[in-house]
Amino acid sequence: MVSEPSHRPLVISVDFDGIIVKPAYPDIGETDMFVVKCLKTLKNHGAYIILNTCRWGEPLDDAVEHCRNLGLEFDAVNANLDHMIARWGECRKLGGDIYIDDRDICHGPIRMKFRLWTLATFYHTICKRYNRSV
Is 129 exposed, middle or buried (0-12, 13-18, 19+ CB in 10 A)? Predict the structure, then answer.
């Protein structure tokens, strides 16, 4: 049985097409290096990053490999984290504290980038606000 970590870092669910890359499905669009840099910073701060995408099969494998080549590794891909499954069971909806998606009602390229920058820059403060340790 997988136990929940004693510390509770933020879980960030991020879309691929429209966020990490410009939409070009099933191909890989132009990479937004600002987004990649922010996600890598968050991961280095201790956040869990889940890739949450409609891609599957070869297009999904291509997306994961593309990110890996950029130095961005995910803690889960289209799945919940092991400690979340152990606590809540397996379900279709991905759990997370923060969702970054181009279908977000508040999405806009500048707004999304500002939110990512704020999150990456003030991660420790945000964790304290959510009663999460780093």
Answer: exposed
Tell me, what's the pLDDT at 8? 72
The Cα 103–Cα 85 span in angstroms is 26
On average, the pLDDT of the chain sits at 87
Q: Lay out the sheet containing 11-14: strands in order across.
A: 76-77, 48-51, 11-14, 98-100
Structural domains in the chain plus CATH codes: 11-129 (3.40.50.1000)
Quick one: pLDDT band at residue 3, thresholds 50, 70, 90? low
pTM: 0.81
